[in-house]
Design goal:
Helix 3 runs parallel beside helix 7 and helix 6 crosses helix 7. The protein is α/β, with parallel strands linked by helices. Helix content is 23%, strand content 35%. Strands 1-18-7-6-2-3-4-5 form an 8-stranded mixed beta sheet. The protein has a 6-stranded mixed beta sheet with strand order 11-16-15-12-13-14, with helices on both faces.
Length: 307
Amino acid sequence: MSLTVNNIENYNNMSEFCIKEKFVFFYGESLDLRGKETEKLINESSMSILIKYIPEKGFININSDEFPHYMLMNFIEKLDTDYILIESTTLSVAEILLLLHYINQLENDIKLSILYVEPEEYKLKDIKDNFQEFELSNHFEGFYNIRPYNLLIDSTTNNKEKAEIVVLLGFEDNRIGYLLEMDEGQKYKSYVPLLGLPAFRTGWENIALSRNIRHFNSDFKKLEFAGASNPYQVMNKLEEIKNKSDYEKILIAAFGTKPSAIGTSLFLVNNFKNKNNKVGIIYDFPKKKENRTMGTGKVYNYIIKKQ
């Protein structure tokens, strides 16, 4: 089975978004107004589940109970529901990926959608080189693979058996800087930058590009584009990159928008081959600042379908 974006619903604000049937609601910790707006869905759901991935253990925390990530399958199977809603605004790529991974393995068909709320603005930290710099994270937990999407790469083998890394560009240039510095060319021999274009706001793509351009040098000849709010485009673009790559393995660094993280998760789930993975993900688990955004923008409901 595979997953795809069957439809994208757009709303001007959360007050327009309405669900007439009961659903199970997966959500994360609220850090800004967007999270508080989506938390209103808790009272409308038949069951609300606070979920968080613990990277250093590979565990899932659900409503304060911890267990290995693979037990999430049993948890989801026991849910008495025909409809699951994943609130991605408050979740990281890890929780989104694992939820999609195990929902895709369910034998029964289930209605599934993923909600995302754009910010109206990011909180401004400074202006450098005529571009806005946003204050988004306090620190990063460090780079971890997300099991079972860890990709084994032998740094002693020839270049073609190493990995090509696809970097979804965001506003925080230090993230890719740390990754490249940590590797020093041992495992990753080629870099493909993927820029969110069209962006949420006109000009935001220039901020992401200007912040990251110094890390890639000639590899910017490989610059690719997919819509910042369109996971379907991101999923297809990653598939295209994989198919034309000269490398045996593809590693995704999902530093871009949340919809691009959804598209990345769909791509990974659809390419999952158990222990013979050719694609994987690495993530640095940023500790996000509270109230790092202001207001709420457009609301997207991504209808996900098994095929």
